[in-house]
Amino acid sequence: MAGSRVPGQDDPEAAPPFVGSTERRAPAPLPPLPPDRRVGFCLVGLGRLSLETILPALPTTNLCALRAVMTGDRDKGLRVARQHGLPDAAVYGYDEWDRLATDDTVRAVYVVTPNGLHLHQVREAARIGRHVLCEKPMANNSAEAEAMVAASAAAGVILMVAYRLQYEPHHRELIRMTRSGRFGTLKLIEAHDGQVQDTAPQWRHEAALAGGGALPDIGIYGLNFSRFVTGEEPVEVMAWSWSTPGDPRFAEVEETIAWMMRFPSGTVARLAAAYDAHESRPARLYFQRATVALEPAFAYRGLRLHVHRRAPDREDAELVEERILVDKNQFATELDHMAECVLTGRRPRTPGEEGVQDHRLMEAIYRSARENRPVALPPVAGLDAFRGPALED
User: Fold this and answer.
1) What gap in Å lies between CA 344 and CA 131, rounded to an integer?
2) CA distance 218 to 83
3) What pTM was estimated for this model as a whole?
4) What domains does the chain contain, in order, with CATH numbers?
5) Where are the beta strands (DSSP E) in 197-246?
6) Is 221 considered catalytic here?
7) Marked catalytic residue, from 110, 163, 167, 221
């Protein structure tokens, strides 16, 4: 776990190494807290992401424990609660925030519902004094996102946005490569995220619940990626969008969007997201002295990182090396970071302000596509302007 040491955890470095100095060593993990000292979470929303990914990740964390679930389907909630050893009383409806306020085992909520519901649910969580981990995009627009930040600040609770990739080892390696200057200046970023939407009706096709189409749902990965790798904020965007005429899936939201962003250093990002293209999630970074490829770049698992550069001992040959990194459960890692913040009081690496900035940029992207012209953005000084303290390795 990265960051401040949590009170009550033993020092793993007290144990001597059991492999030689020539062998690769994984970082020694901090031992888990006992069950009664873990941060209790209420999982708000029991859709596919919660059932298939987040619930299986929770038992693998060091600092977290599932204490309750909140859902609009009580039968589903009871079934999930029993599967995870929770009492029936730990199942809450979306209108039972006051009852949740009486549950002292819950210190934080993880909001995993459609985007258009986030504002109300975050406000309610803040009102009853619960810290919030909120899925991305954090709202439908920047005004709602700003209101979420304000409500959390007024209540004195933590608001963290679930940008799982900022805690993922391969992405953190890309940050190190870029910031170190080892391969020279970063000139160009390319990234794409695509998937084919099913024809069955779903909330992602409704503007009131989704806030948009491919851009906020999957395009946000490339948008946030280009920002956290460089640490910079763009100063100009140019975008284009398209939806197949007559396709009912895209009557309210866009099918495909592509855009470019220019950063103060001169780095340019070429990004795209598509709702009716075969699943593919690559990213490439073009430096002066190397090209770095991450594919898949935005998946939950199986990321692979390759560095292409001239062989140091031959001018006519290119060296391609794969960086083998420890694969971690991305949801467990972000959950433990949130729990660490609750336990120590540190500011999250991805606070609400980080999510607000993505919404402002998405609104500029939509404006550019709508008006078919570049849109200038206000300059933001410094690196990582909207993020919390850097993570420790």
Assistant:
1) 13
2) 31
3) 0.94
4) 12-163 (3.40.50.720), 165-324+349-376 (3.30.360.10)
5) 236-242
6) yes
7) 221
